[in-house]
Amino acid sequence: MKYANEARAEGVPVRTGEILYEAMPWLKQVTGKTIVIKYGGSAMENPQLAAEVMADIVLLKILGVNPVLVHGGGKAINRAFAKFDLPVEFVDGQRVTTDDAMDLVRMVLTGEVNQQLVEAMNAHGNMGVGVSGTDAGIIVAEQADPRLGRVGKITRINTPLIEDLVADDYIPIIASIAIGEDGGCYNVNADVAAGYIAAAIGAHKIIFLTDVDGLYENYPDPDSLIAEMSLGEAEAMVRGDKLASGMIPKLASCVRALDSGVSAAHIINGTVPHALLLEMLTDSGMGTMVGGLASAQFLNVSPVSKFAAKLIENR
Ligand SMILES: Nc1ncnc2c1ncn2[C@@H]1O[C@H](COP(=O)(O)OP(=O)(O)O)[C@@H](O)[C@H]1O
Ligand SMILES: CC(=O)N[C@@H](CCC(=O)OP(=O)(O)O)C(=O)O
């Protein structure tokens, strides 16, 4: 037997109840909704953290959210390229991919990264289903530019498999490989794939988990980290020349998703423990939110303004 006083003396956190309660308004906004989560290779480097991200996604599912995970694995691909002495070259955030390199990219994304995520997620109940974008023709593409080799430009998303998995309460884990209109397969940037998928399935939100705190207007000046920006501001930034490699496809994807009716796009730091939960279920939120607001503001704005922004976003 144990007395209640002893339990308290061991430090039952009084704040826990308040924290759980704080989640209620946010949960009401997202429960039953489909959220596309793009998990980038940069934020997956620590396997322990990656396992925690998978656990958080399962928790969101248990709470009634329908997550659809789209993943990259650029760093793992770079390592494989180094092993086979293949040159790593990017043009506007897209990897130049020869025919031989394509086999390696597919092997790493579908055979290695995808299955690691499935394994980590399914340690918490068998909800995760790993698929390649080629399965059931989820991602269909054609050659983007002959100079990039087998890099795909997405022409279509076939949604039935994703929708069936979600309806059956599974969590799709999708590797960014596309089936070619002309046969074969294509390497598709995972940010781009996530934006197209979010648009095609009519997701409520899209969240990019990366390895920086969000989008910086003048990277890496810490004072230029953007808390909120409108669709118009994001479009202007994509058209401008300030964005560097990794953020070009991410912000362009935010724009595509918002243009297609997704209510908000977030770029957050996936290396912060429980970043997804903090963004989705707390008053403070995290990172950069695109959409729903008229003008860009920086992170040192008062928390009240972020709170108001969230309310507007969720209308
Ligand atoms: N304006 C910017 N704001 C934030 N990060 C930027 C910016 N420009 C370039 N970056 C770089 O983008 C990287 C994230 O993109 P990337 O490496 O492709 O990540 P992921 O694997 O998550 O897709 C950051 O680590 C950072 O170095
Ligand atoms: C065409 C293209 O660039 N494809 C990407 C696919 C993986 C990816 O996008 O990974 P991250 O999300 O980690 O960046 C690549 O080969 O790196």
TrEMBL record:
<dbReference type="InterPro" id="IPR037528">
    <property type="entry name" value="ArgB"/>
</dbReference>
<feature type="binding site">
    <location>
        <position position="95"/>
    </location>
    <ligand>
        <name>substrate</name>
    </ligand>
</feature>
<dbReference type="InterPro" id="IPR001048">
    <property type="entry name" value="Asp/Glu/Uridylate_kinase"/>
</dbReference>
<feature type="binding site">
    <location>
        <begin position="73"/>
        <end position="74"/>
    </location>
    <ligand>
        <name>substrate</name>
    </ligand>
</feature>
<dbReference type="InterPro" id="IPR041727">
    <property type="entry name" value="NAGK-C"/>
</dbReference>
<keyword id="KW-0067">ATP-binding</keyword>
<feature type="domain" description="Aspartate/glutamate/uridylate kinase">
    <location>
        <begin position="33"/>
        <end position="269"/>
    </location>
</feature>
<dbReference type="InterPro" id="IPR036393">
    <property type="entry name" value="AceGlu_kinase-like_sf"/>
</dbReference>
<keyword id="KW-0547">Nucleotide-binding</keyword>
<feature type="binding site">
    <location>
        <position position="187"/>
    </location>
    <ligand>
        <name>substrate</name>
    </ligand>
</feature>
<keyword id="KW-0418">Kinase</keyword>
<keyword id="KW-0028">Amino-acid biosynthesis</keyword>
<dbReference type="InterPro" id="IPR001057">
    <property type="entry name" value="Glu/AcGlu_kinase"/>
</dbReference>
<protein>
    <recommendedName>
        <fullName>Acetylglutamate kinase</fullName>
        <ecNumber>2.7.2.8</ecNumber>
    </recommendedName>
</protein>
<comment type="similarity">
    <text>Belongs to the acetylglutamate kinase family. ArgB subfamily.</text>
</comment>
<dbReference type="Pfam" id="PF00696">
    <property type="entry name" value="AA_kinase"/>
</dbReference>
<dbReference type="GO" id="GO:0042450">
    <property type="term" value="P:L-arginine biosynthetic process via ornithine"/>
</dbReference>
<feature type="site" description="Transition state stabilizer">
    <location>
        <position position="250"/>
    </location>
</feature>
<dbReference type="InterPro" id="IPR004662">
    <property type="entry name" value="AcgluKinase_fam"/>
</dbReference>
<dbReference type="GO" id="GO:0005524">
    <property type="term" value="F:ATP binding"/>
</dbReference>
<keyword id="KW-0808">Transferase</keyword>
<keyword id="KW-0963">Cytoplasm</keyword>
<comment type="pathway">
    <text>Amino-acid biosynthesis; L-arginine biosynthesis; N(2)-acetyl-L-ornithine from L-glutamate: step 2/4.</text>
</comment>
<comment type="function">
    <text>Catalyzes the ATP-dependent phosphorylation of N-acetyl-L-glutamate.</text>
</comment>
<dbReference type="GO" id="GO:0003991">
    <property type="term" value="F:acetylglutamate kinase activity"/>
</dbReference>
<dbReference type="GO" id="GO:0005737">
    <property type="term" value="C:cytoplasm"/>
</dbReference>
<feature type="site" description="Transition state stabilizer">
    <location>
        <position position="38"/>
    </location>
</feature>
<keyword id="KW-0055">Arginine biosynthesis</keyword>
